[in-house]
Amino acid sequence: MKRSLLAIAAVFSVMFFIPFGAGAQENDAVVSKIIETGKTDNHVMVHEDMLANRIGGRIVGSDALLRAEQWVKKQLEKWGYEVTVQQVGTMPVGFNRGPWSGRMLSEDGMVLHFGTPSYTAGTKGPQKGHVVIEPRSREEFQRMKNTIAGAWVLIGGKSNGFALDGSAKANEKRNAILQKNDSIRKVNREIRAWNEKHKDKKKEMLQEDQTPALLYKEMVEAGALGFIQSAKVPITVLYNRANCNDFTIDSLPTVCDIKLDSKQYDIIYEKASRREDFLLEFDIRNHFIEGPVPFSNVIAVMKGSEYPDEYVISGGHLDSYDASCGAIDDGQGVSVNLESARLLALAGAKPKRSIMFAIWTAEEFGLLGSKYFVQNNTVDLDKISNYFNRDGGPQVASSVTVIPAMYDDFVAAAEGINDINPDFPFEVIKNEAPARPRPKSAGGSDHAYFAKNGVPTVSINLSDVKGYNFSYGEIWHSERDNYNKCIPEYMEHSAIVNAILIYRLANLDHILNRTGLYSDK
After folding, report:
1. Considering only CA atoms, which of 155, 289, 272 is closest in space to residue 214?
2. Residue 183 above 80 pLDDT?
3. Average pLDDT, stretch 11-37?
4. Which superfamily does 24-92+293-506 belong to?
5. What is the reported pLDDT for 202?
6. Which residues, other chains included, contact 177 with Cβ-Cβ below 8 Å and sequence gap of 6+?
7. Which one of 58, 74, 293, 347 has the fewest beta carbons within 10 angstroms of its own beta carbon?
8. What is the pTM of this model?
9. For 110-277, CATH number?
10. Which DSSP string corresponds to 75-131?
11. Strand partners, 261
């Protein structure tokens, strides 16, 4: 009786697998291997440690970014991918950040908490100087210009993280503002005289333009050591956006650009306004590299067996700001993608259509890497099934939101994901809202140029389901974008989910249906 039942079961088993062939069994085995390896030997944090702690902040044009590109390429090649280093551009000079420190030298002295934007000047060793408050007019500058030589100059406003613009164009704008302020000051003198005579009918004074560092050029020429601006904590320091593409090794910035903890700034400002006798000392090791210095995308492909010119793409950006180590923005995105690539390779994946991992460059400089990829038709955009972008926090993959035309395919692709770890449920959400027009301008991350060209950019939604109180605003472009802000269990699980979704979508007998993705496509 047992033999008869086994024989019948075997017949039904063969009948069941006839429509799917051996491929269905193979696919299940690949997914099982992805899950097993991802749960027992996950390397997400190994990748993250390399990027954040051993390489560090990866500003465009730095040795760190070049090392990171080489390391990513080596890993992907080791796992069997076809890897292309796609040069996107060059910086005329490069930039490497060294250590920095500062202190106030006085009876109530303190260690200073500050940062400097990339591609700004460092000091020539520890440099001491007195402190002055910036002049607001040419007359005021003439009265105090001899005090600016060798001084740290406090300027107004609140830092937005970017360097002060020292270009000729910016100085022309400053001159126009100074002229306008001169006119306002003249009118205000007349109003003041009127108000003295008509105290019962006082006129309101006109407000001058308070743009910081209006005498920037004049103060540089007078010999200022550097400019100090108030910055909220955590301190954001970005780069010299207006000027870095115009530098040569013989025409580099010479005056420091310091963004100082707002509480310390207020203390120093008050002491300077009372004309107290004290000094500040800064030691800032900002170093430049003779260019051109290239920056490149790293593109890895696992060729499809049936549709090699069709793609499921997943990516994140390798560059980061360098006041910290770029662990979250976007080290975690790159690390999750690298581990997905590794899990697929170790599982012996042989997808029907090609799987591509795109590790972008220069996202922080204007999405330059992904823009180059799209605008140069690296692949046929109509043959991209979906681009998954991971550029957010270290939270866990929790859902995808898709249009109705893609819903069934994503439900099938997500099958069994909920069984991997009950702590991390996963949902496919059907978005039945009316289709919107394609975006006409690029957005804030590397999905933008794909979306602008009508490519699906369904990305995995992330959640802090266990309540680790992660705040993206705390790390975003700030000094706190460190390894210790990572959440390993979230990132490890996300790599598994990412790999499974990519693999199953690559094994569909069709690319994802774009009907209703955009109202004008």
Report:
1. 155
2. yes
3. 64
4. Zn peptidases (3.40.630.10)
5. 86
6. 209, 211, 214
7. 74
8. 0.92
9. 3.50.30
10. HHHHTT-EEEEEEEEEEEEEEEEEEEEEEEESTT-EE--EE--BTS---SSSEEEEE
11. 231
